[in-house]
Protein 1
Amino acid sequence: MKPRILSGVQPTGNLHIGNYLGALKNWAKLQYDYESIFCIVDLHAITVYQDPAELRRKIDQTAALFIACGIDPKQSSVVVQSMVPGHAELAWLLTCVTPVGWLERMTQYKDKAAKQESVGTGLLCYPVLMAADILIYQANCVPVGDDQSQHLELTRDIAQRFNAAYGETFVMPETRLPTVGARVMGLDEPEKKMSKSAEGPNHSIGLLDPPSLIKKKIMRATTDSNPAVDFETMGPGVANLITIFQAFSGWDDASVKSHFSGLRYGDLKKNVVEAVVAGLEPIQHKYAEIVADPAYLRGVLRESAERVMPFANATVNLVKSRLGIYTAA
Ligand code: TYM
């Protein structure tokens, strides 16, 4: 049997090249070596208020983008988290073995909580639901961007704590980061990670941005006071542009270094525009085909949920029996 991978994306904001290079591109490559489950984590999205109609639209859009980015639904399951009730049920069971101090230490929780007047309990418990997504499928490996590393350590801590208290139950999942693009930074603020919720018009490149907009955003990206690329002294903005180029082009380090050393920033940016536009063009083309056929997408989501449900239910039942409580009749 092949080892299993599980990963997920929240259906909020616009998916950007950070999501693609940090996660989706890697998933498309790994799916042939693993039994793969990729989730649209709508239960995570509602930890902060979402307009219901807009959320529904984003769930479908995110699923369509998974497929457009190369996830093959014949090979991999594309699962909407809320369609498999075991995720929420296991999250509760795990919440009961998770010390609140572990959750309060999470940096993403601290960042998000600092922006809210009243912090919902869901936001605090968010990483437990993430642990449930992973542990419910006994995933061996979780391909994510670097910002999720802390949540994955917590997942292992929760699994270990449960195993120690109730007997070997969960497989320990490994974190798998991409070699290039694990942390893509904002174009306007290269000290901050590119994020779906950031507001600046030139912060991120959306996977569905037209070429003219991609060009505009990259040409305005923050660089530094050097006139040209110097690998010894370059600032984070230039380093980020080079990372983006390298991740899209697939060039090795030596080729990137010899091509870009001494190149003026205007020319560097033109190279980056070309690589990004060429990389996103087939994704946008495939996306347009998928959304033209909503019945196809609904079929993929239904079949994927049906495929994974028996496994998810089996894990929930195992956990419940370990805890000494009743399983579903
Ligand atoms: P989310 O929706 O914020 O991001 C989805 C994926 O994109 C990666 N990513 C990035 N990678 C590189 N550079 C960036 N600037 C960047 N921004 C985002 C993220 O690391 C992630 O891999 N909590 C998760 C969703 C989730 C999940 C899971 C992931 C829920 N359950 C189970 C893995 C396994 C999140 O909010 O991702």
Protein 2
Amino acid sequence: MPSDPMSREKNERPLEVDVAFDAVVVGAGFAGMYMLHCLRGLGLSARVYEAGGGVGGTWYWNRYPGARCDVESMQYSYSFSEELDQEWSWSEKYSPQPEILDYANHVADRFDLRRDIRFDTKVTAATFDDAARRWIVETDRGDRVTAQFCIMAVGCLSAANLPPFAGMADFRGPIYHTGHWPHEGVDFTGLEVGVIGTGSSAIQSIPVIAQQAASLTVFQRTPNYSVPAWNDKLDPEYERAIKADYPAFRAKARARPTGFYFEFNTSPALDATPEERERQYAEFWARGGLPFLGAYGDLLFDKAANDTIAEFARDKIRGIVKDPATAALLCPDNVFGCKRLCVDTGYFETYNLPHVTLVDVSTNPIERFTEKGVVTDGVEYAFDAVVCATGFAAMTGSFDRVAITGRDGLTLKEKWRAGPRTYLGLTSAGFPNLFMITGPGSPSVLASMIPAIEQHVDWIADCLGHMRDTGAETIEPTVAHEDNWVAHVNEVAAVSLRSTCSSWYVGANIPGRPRVFMPYIGGFPIYVGKCNEVLSNGFEGFVIDGAREADTRPRVRFTERWRAELDLDVISPAAVAARRVPVV
Ligand code: N01
């Protein structure tokens, strides 16, 4: 995907060669920004390289029409600064992309982050120099710097997947990817538009594109479940109530399996009568969004329970979409919530519009692009513009874009060929002093991203603080601990129905990728407890080399706020074993 040449010109700057930093951070999204803030708090020197022309990561690139967050605004923000929490106000229950990007820019200004960030710069390689015990980091602009620590803040869903359809170069109109949307926006007024894909990005953008386009044709390979957002202006009373004690609200959210707060019910769906279930689903549907999955505790563990919520959701689709053939095509027959649940505003209603058509490409895939449009099943559909809402090479794709070489010439890509291997999703054996923020093997995309990011950054910051305190040179997990962690990640994934379908969670959306459930599904608080324990036990499972004082107890500077008592009735290991942990 091209970077923006105008922005790059604007960000003209001298090259950085042979400059030494304590840490280099790759990416200036929410992870890289907060990491920089903490590195400064430790008094460490840092350089952040960012491929985009500004901060914000996901929210910088995904500017497609209708893009908004699926986690409520009052929870989708940093929690590290009470002042920041108090001074910022969101306008809607679910924030639109431009407002989240404004927030990211506000944070960058408020904490004076930009002076250590180099924009329009892609890190191309990071190589561990064993003799010097430092990382050599190179960029596409010719920078070549060294750092003791290299921190990958590259995001989980940032490597866009543009399938290599034959003939794309022949198409005479523009082809857009939702994850690389033009900054100036796109006006579809009066155009014949094709959209490929029906995941979250498509489900958000289709209703908005349909308002402008003369005709809209959607190519669907797999139908998706979607729950209405019931988005609205943010209720000022609700905002006031949360801001009256924001830290308490944050603590409640952190104790939840997904790292964000909503009310849920832990009882099993099949213990209820059909009438009770219907009432319960109707009530949770009326709340809308991802919390719909909180209607019962066993929905993602017990297929028979899941069938009941799936049928409720299909009934909703059949109730909305007037043409029965289209409604049937839109009804998924897989496990509800197995793929990431979508949240929409008027998605299914859009198919009632006379100029909107659904084309099933499940058995006859898109054959090719032509000069005029797209061909499937021998039929050519003519378009002025095509939108590929075809997703991302999730979790590992963003790492693959950087040539990361650890000890003995081992590349991360090679090491992860059969699937990612990490210890706690934070580090990987053979790659000393390399850290990942929300890497594979951590809750990452199964938790609300900002709390997941903050918890990782705080842990890394305490780790780096400890290394500085003890004069340590390198830290690296043992292979045995990494193997145990990978086995545990797989073990808990096997318990969940989520591991049973061909989603991007398992890399199945892109041909040729290994099929491994990548995020940690054991629940955010359980994972946080494990990270705390590792730290408190003097970085158990890690080899720390070169320390002056081997048994100095790590100081807890940043992770203190992750040590609150948990609501163990809901999130206990016993609850997990009994498969009564909703929405994990
Ligand atoms: O991507 P996706 P996304 N021919 O992979 C189809 C997060 N997110 O960008 O299902 C035809 O979900 C593919 O079909 P199939 C969220 O976590 C968050 O929509 O593989 N079709 C699918 O329909 C989300 O889950 C938010 O059979 C092809 C679609 O393209 C994640 O990002 C908003 C194809 C891709 O769907 C990714 O969502 C948006 C082909 N060759 C996204 N290749 C918010 O919270 C792919 N497809 C706001």
